[in-house]
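Treating backbone geometry as a discrete language has practical consequences that deserve illustration. The amino acid sequence and the backbone structure tokens for this protein are reproduced below.
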Amino acid sequence: MAMAMTTTEEGLKKGIAEFYDASSGTWEDIWGDHMHHGFYDPGATAPIHDHRAAQIRMIEEALRFAGVSDNPLKKPKKVVDVGCGIGGSSRYIAKKYGAYCQGITLSPIQVQRAQALSADEGLADKVDFQVADALNQPFPDGQFDLVWSMESGEHMPDKVKFVSELARVAAPGATIVIVTWCHRDLLPSEANLAPDETSLLNKICNAYYLPSWCSAADYVKIANSLSLEDIKTADWSDYVAPFWPAVIRSAFTWKGFTSLVRSGWKTIKGALVMPLMIQGYNKNLIKFTIITCRKPAQSLPDRG
């Protein structure tokens, strides 16, 4: 059983890396260097040209929700961006706070592009990127005063290990920010999601190289088990509702279509599943969730 799990997780990591190696260029061509949802006013429509402002707003809203300070004496100085994409969040946070940011991703292509974009922006001395596994981060304990994960948690096959690693590399008193896709919280009478809900999520998993989903309540339980403090969550699904329709519209532009064709089947397969994301949101099955917490000012005991 252990060998099968290892093989499955290795296959998942390989699939994630290949998916983003293939698709990141297409995304950047159409949407720029922030590979995540935008944050919109509820009920607003989202013209394609407004997406970048909404993506920047997503970063700002996440920092605000987490209570990350702009005070020069309290602002973050060392940041890790877990699942960094092509470095959009890292560069933004580095410029906003004057912080040193280190990003990790499974995609070598993303690392190369992130380094190049950072050099072009004169940030080569403020950000650094490397290929690494979020479940086994290449950093010593207690390195970062802001631990940032923007839409990478959904790819993690072991959510306990994922949050544990975020907590391990966080310095005492550091803020941890997780923005991720979740499924709805289960009702007290439910042991599992309904079969049709599981079927829908499995179709999305197959296209985007996702393991099993979890709920926001699951993340809270994990954070509590790790003795993390100031745990807060929010469902931001209404604030991201215009995102997937805008992505679909962008795919039907000539630039979007030709870029998809050039990127290959993995990216096309992902594009074909996008309507299922909208369906999941409309059914209140998929929840766009933010979870923030803080590592205690006193170091946590080693939990093995």
